[in-house]
Design brief:
Blueprint lengths: L3 E6 L29 H7 L10 E6 L3 H7 L8 E4 L5 H15 L4 E6 L3 E2 L2 H17 L3 E6 L10 E4 L12 E7 L4 H10 L2 E11 H11 L1 H10 L8 H11 L5 H6 L5 E6 L3 E2 L4 H7 L8 E3 L1 E5 L5 E3 L5 E5 L4 E6 L2 E6 L6 H12 L5
Parallel strand pairs: 1-2, 1-4, 2-3, 6-10, 12-14, 13-15, 14-16
Antiparallel strand pairs: 4-9, 5-11, 6-9, 7-8, 7-9, 8-10, 16-17
Helix pairs in contact: 3-6, 3-7, 6-7, 7-8
Length: about 350
């Protein structure tokens, strides 16, 4: 385990989960599933036994470093990497990878978002160990692909080559194409074909392999971190990162590296995964009552079906006659919205900011 590292990306706002996820308190710091642990805490918990605590790094916005320390009080401050501004996942992963490589050139790194849900944790750990072993043995970039259970338009898809010509053991499949969130007709075709997986956003690779990929496919970002690599892990790190991020473009690791590299493999997996990016995903993952409602709060329901109710425990909520609705309250905002219209949440947030000010987003 001593050469295995975990990088948790915990800087996003999660605006599709508004009003529960807010700029000042994003969803990764909430107990979304109502189990007594925040999404960030659950994420770190599930890697117990995969890597030692001293090899866990959390990358987040500097505005959230105090929140990370509150949720992970045993995590040393120098293992919380603060980004001065959001620049998407490529600079985030470059920062963490260069920092880890300075410490351990033989490192194998697992990268995970902080706000995903996993129902079958033992199977998850088995798959992660399998991917780590493969990444340690080969110069490959591995992403975990989830067996799709439905034609979901909210996920990206990975198409793999269904043959064994790669010469790599361990269930790895050579990636053929990446496709961003498709329309429903295309999603149905993907699922029925049998050679597409959901893109989980979970990655596994050796530190030297991902740094080499940055040199090949995102050389501008690699150049920035090459110049300051010796300052990482020192008192000069904060100042260097402040300068570096002004020079990094806003680009995802998927678009910048994974869609271009020729050594990308996917490991098919099925461990009860959800990115919990929307209220509807919470309805799928949550505990259902007899009327297919998911309730987190103090609520009395009458003639109400297929709803998501998430409200503060100190407020009694009475709901009558709703079917297929979201009722969500946090801080100073109450949202009541049809589940089928939840894609409009980002529109609501934009309108609220424009008409009511920044105090509600």
């Amino acid at each position: 385990m001593e050469n295995t590292y975990l990088v948790v990306m915990a800087g996003g706002i999660g605006s599709r989960f508004w009003p529960f996820s807010r700029t000042h308190h994003p969803k990764q710091f909430h107990d979304v599933l109502g189990v007594g642990r925040s999404m960030l805490q659950l994420t770190v918990d599930r890697f117990h036994g995969i890597c030692p605590p001293e090899n866990v790094f959390v990358v987040t916005n500097r505005d959230y470093t105090d929140l990370v320390q509150q949720h992970l009080p045993d995590l040393p401050a120098d293992q919380i990497l603060g980004e001065p501004i959001g620049r998407n996942t490529a600079p985030c992963i470059a920062y963490a990878s260069y920092r880890i490589m300075q410490r351990d050139p033989k490192a194998t790194i697992v990268v995970t978002p902080a706000d995903h849900a996993v129902m079958h944790e033992e199977e998850f750990r088995r798959v992660i160990r399998q991917a780590v072993d493969a990444a340690r043995a080969h110069e490959v970039l591995i992403t975990l692909g989830i067996q799709p259970s439905r034609p979901d338009t909210g996920y990206g898809y990975i198409q793999f080559m269904d043959d064994d010509t790669s010469g790599l053991a361990g269930g790895l499949k050579k990636v053929k194409t990446f496709t961003e969130k498709p329309n429903l007709e295309l999603a149905k075709m993907f699922v029925s074909s049998g050679d597409f997986l959901w893109n989980s956003g979970l990655f596994v690779w050796r530190a030297d392999v991902i740094v080499n990929a940055f040199h090949h496919y995102l050389s501008d970002i690699a150049e920035v971190f090459d110049e300051g690599a010796q300052q990482l892990g020192t008192d000069q790190e904060v100042d260097f990162i402040s300068r570096a991020y002004t020079r990094c473009r806003n680009i995802s690791i998927d678009y910048g590296v994974m869609e271009k590299a020729d050594n990308v493999y996917v490991l098919p997996a099925d461990f009860g995964w959800s990115d919990l990016g929307t209220w509807d995903s919470l309805h799928r993952m949550g505990h259902h009552d007899a009327d297919d409602n998911v309730v987190d709060g103090d609520a009395l329901l009458y003639d109400t079906r297929e709803c998501v109710i998430k409200t503060p425990l100190e407020r009694l909520v009475v709901v009558q006659g709703l079917e297929g609705y979201i009722v969500a309250e946090y801080d100073n905002v109450l949202l009541i919205c049809k589940r089928t219209e939840e894609q409009r949440v980002k529109e609501f947030v934009a309108d609220v900011k424009a008409k009511k000010g920044a105090g509600y987003n």
